[in-house]
Amino acid sequence: MTVDKDYDDEKAIRDIGLNVDLQKPIRYLYACHYNGVERYILRNSGSTFDAEDIFQETLMVTIKAIQGSRFRADSSLKSYVFAIAKNLWISELRRRKSASKRAEIYTDEQDMQIKPTTNELIRNEDFKLVLGLFESLGGKCKRILLLFYYQDMSMKEIMEAENYTSEQVVRNKKYKCLKTLIDQIKSDPILYENVKDALNYE
C-alpha cells in the first residue's frame, strides 16, 4: 500500500479532523503502522486474521478520537495507534480466556450427565456393533470417538492429528458426537433394544 512521500502524521490528523477524503489518511495509517501491530499480535497468541480485525477497530477508535479532539498532539500518532491496538488485543485475549473457561465448565458438566451411558457402551466387547454406530455419525465423529476411546489419545493429540484449531474445539465436537449417538439409540426403540441386548446395557 503506497502513500504520497510528502504525506505525514500532521496531514493525516488534519484530514481526519476535517473528515475529508478519509481513504488517504487510512492508507497512510495502514502503510505506517499495520506491520508493527501485526508483529505484536503474532508474538502474543494471535493470527494475521486477528491482526486485521484489531487494526480495523484501532482505526475506528483513532479516527473517532481525532475527530472528537481527544487525541493529544504531545504524543506521536505511532505511539497512540499502537497503544490502542495493544489495549484492544489484551481485552480480546481476556475475553477469549473467560469464554473458553465457561465453555470448558459447561462441556464437563454435560459429559458427566451422559457418562454412565457412555461407559456402558465403550466397555462392550462387541467392537463391530459399536463401530457400526460410530459409522452412522460420519467420518469426523467416528475418528474422534475411536481415537479418544479406543486409542486413548488426549484432546491435544487428537487436535494435532486431525488438524483442529484448539483442544476446546475437539472437546466440543466429541460431546456433540457422543450426545447424537446416545440420542440416536434412545430415539429408535428397535435399535435401542438391539444395542441393549448386545451390550448387556441397562
Structure description:
The chain is mainly α. It has nine helices and no strands. The protein is 78% helix and 0% strand. The chain has two domains: 87 residues, Rna Polymerase Sigma Factor, Chain: A (Orthogonal Bundle), CATH 1.10.1740.10; 76 residues.
In terms of structural class, how would the helical and strand content be classed?
mainly alpha
What percent of residues are in strands?
Answer: under 5%
How many beta-strand runs? 0
Find the CATH topology of the largest domain: Rna Polymerase Sigma Factor, Chain: A
**What summary fits the major beta sheet?**
none
Indicate the mean pLDDT.
77
Oligomer: single chain
Give the CATH H-level superfamily of the largest domain: RNA polymerase sigma factor, region 2, helix turn helix motif
* DSSP helical segment count: 9
The domain count comes to 2
Write down the Rg. Answer: 27 Å
Q: Give helix % range.
A: over 70%
User: How widely separated are the two ends?
Assistant: 67 Å
CATH class of the largest domain: Mainly Alpha
Q: Helices and strands, in N-to-C order?
A: HHHHHHHHH
Q: What CATH architecture of the largest domain do you see?
A: Orthogonal Bundle
Task: Specify the overall morphology.
Answer: elongated
Low-pLDDT residue intervals, each spanning 5 or more residues = 121-126, 198-202
